[in-house]
Amino acid sequence: MERKCPNRCFLARSAVSKRVSSLAENPSRNTRRCEAAPAKLNLFLHVGGRLENGNHLLESLVVFADFGDKLRLTPSGTFALKHTGPFAKSLPRAAVNDLTACAVSGLSNIFSREPAFTLVLEKNIPVAAGLGGGSADAAAAIRLVCREWGVPHTGLDVRVLAERLGADVPMCLYGVPAWVAGVGERLTPLPQMPALDVLLVNPLQ
Fold first, then answer.
1. Shortest CA distance to 98 belongs to which of 74, 73, 75, 123?
2. In a designed cystine with 43, which of 3, 61, 84, 88 is the match (CB 3.0 to 4.6 A)?
3. 3-class DSSP state for residue 97?
């Protein structure tokens, strides 16, 4: 019998010990234009010294839950980013402060293409909860837009963009259990990580 959790609890069943399962693995067009942005879980985190640029060295063991945000892309004349979901009102209004919008802008500069589409972000991850929600959204946007444009999301320019957006974005971009070091750019995949049952509690609800 499945146990029900209160509204303030999220059951993150089987924190994945594999890469993020892309919704685009189904070949249908509608599915290809959707992307999951799973919550990031730090099973271990050590923050080290601060560099001259303000970044901190870190070491962390990271996995991803099967709970998270969702992105949907719809072709349109110009770029727009819309927010839905229980935590949509907590997101920044200005595009310059939104990591998802910044990710799209960065890809536009890299590939010299105009983002003629609307992204709808379903915000299920609480903001500023330590679950990498903004970084997961930016990483999902990178995967989704690159797929729409038919370009790889693993190239050097895209990796540099991910690092520039934030320490959590590179690990969220690849979405695999990993040992993370440096300022978040050094990833060692850990495919042997077992699945975990995790209960995430949001005290704000």
1. 123
2. 61
3. helix
